[in-house]
Amino acid sequence: MNNKDCVTAIIRFPVAHHNQARDLFRKIVQRSRQDEGCLRFVAYEDKETEGVFTLNEEWADEASLQAHLASEHVQASFKAIEALGGRIENIWCREL
């Protein structure tokens, strides 16, 4: 049985904050890939709709994902996303 936990997050920002959001996600990706249990952490920007980004995350297990979410850098990222007017929609998954 595989215990990998995955998250796909769609984050929408006002168009005026697209470039700031892009810079923020570059930092988030770089830092999050260093977290214990991170198997994959990739950010994408929508090719057709400015201000829309997607994160794809894969974690070794639920404990790794929860530690990541509780970390200081992720909590700071949530605040930065909110400050830019970002709205997050998460899809929580477990590998079959």
Protein model, in words:
The protein has 96 residues and is an alpha+beta fold. The protein has a single domain (13-94), classed as 2-Layer Sandwich (Alpha-Beta Plaits), CATH 3.30.70.100. Helices cover 38% and strands 33% of the residues. It has 3 helices and 4 strands. It has helices at residues 18-32, 62-70, 72-83; strands at 5-12, 38-45, 52-59, 87-94. A hairpin with a 6-residue loop joins strand 2 (38-45) and strand 3 (52-59). Helix 1 runs antiparallel to helix 3. The longest helix has 15 residues, at 18-32. The termini are close together.
Structural topology:
Blueprint: E1 5-12, H1 18-32, E2 38-45, E3 52-59, H2 62-70, H3 72-83, E4 87-94
